[in-house]
From TrEMBL:
PANTHER family membership: BLL5978 PROTEIN, TRANS-ACONITATE 2-METHYLTRANSFERASE-RELATED
Ranges of residues in domain C-methyltransferase: 253-411
Annotated GO biological process: methylation
Protein name per the record: Methyltransferase domain-containing protein
Organism taxonomic ancestry: Bacteria, Pseudomonadati, Balneolota, Balneolia, Balneolales
Organism superkingdom: Bacteria
Gene Ontology MF term list: methyltransferase activity
Domain Methyltransferase putative zinc binding: 12-73
InterPro entries from the UniProt entry: Methyltransf_Zn-bd_dom_put, Methyltransf_Zn-bd_dom_put_sf, MeTrfase_14, SAM-dependent_MTases_sf
Organism name: Fodinibius sediminis
Amino acid sequence: MKNSGNMNNIRCRNCGNELTYTFADLGSSPLCNEIIKPGELNRGQRSYPLHTYVCEECYLVQVGTQVSPEEIYSDYSYFSSYSDSWLNHAKRYVEMVTGHYGISHESFVVEIASNDGYLLQYFKEKGIPILGVEPSSTVAQASIEKGIPTEEVFFGRQTAEMLKGKYQSADLVLGNNVLAHVPEIHDFIRGLNVILGERGMMTFEFPHLLQLVENNQFDTIYHEHFFYYSLHAVQSIFKNHGFKIFDVQELSTHGGSIRIFVSREANDNYDVSTNVKDILFREEKKGYLDVDFYTTFDEKVKQTKRELLSLLIDLKNQGKSIVGYGAPGKGNTLLNYCGIGTDFIDYTVDRSPHKQNHYLPGSLIPVFHPDEIRNTRPDYVLILPWNLKEEIMNQIQYVQEWGGKFIIPIPEPTILTPRKAVAQKI
């Protein structure tokens, strides 16, 4: 949908074009990881418009209202190490780059947005020199406690100059789920140009816009994610800075991500693989170079909201008890957009002690230890981090003891029974 007369004069943070086409409008929402402490329940919270647009010039999907990174990451509550599947994913990555790309004890590896050291710890085990760059003090300190060298700074050109002078050029730069979190993307890539060695390589993982659209993953839209990338969009940005994407891998993480492999354009160590060409062709064929394609997504989001609320209303009218599992950013987008609070969800649980005995932003649903599910024996468990549903259903398969079932909200509201994990129509 094209917005008539964009009163806010919002412009694309890549090419500067005025943004007039809506991708998805999720109303107003607080910061998704701003977990509320018990003493802050009556303090009130700021909410910001969560309205995404698509640029008709470069086809980059982006949030219109920008919240400063300093505000987002001042008290960050997401610790990567509390997901077993994510740790396994990180370990496999380290095995891949050391086995196939010659990363060894003679290399220098820099991870941007290194969180709590969830990945660099596996390079450390191999005796490979490492450095983490992490702006949030809460998770940076957890990384330092693991013995991982970590600089608590935001990454950009100026920071890269400092890091290169203090350490050295990097043979491998990596960033998992960081490209979407960087509002000044051009300054970020200028920093990469500084820190990367002439023959070095980089890898970045991020949720693929193609998967977001096809699987209706609107809840992955939140203020931390400034951008939502197709391969076409991200390739264009890197190319403008003298880099080439020489390979792409499709991943199952976060509901469907891609990992791009990047080097300097002049680096002849790496030829562009057919994977890159194949995904670019697939995106173009599906319409990702046509602005009208993007504008149909918003209605699909509204329909999912209506279906989820209808299901929850029906269950509550039957006298059923419903609780949540997880306190992820995507879950808070879902709950706040749909207007779901303790009138539907009694509480949620999370493995992270940093979230337990606190409250979710906006909805103010209390967060407890996972043992609370066994104690209260709810009829239904709404799995908010649906991308980890297999891991979570395995962890709490004991709900079958009292006939409990799972609700998966995305891509469409579905009820699953434990063990058999058979979908039921709603």
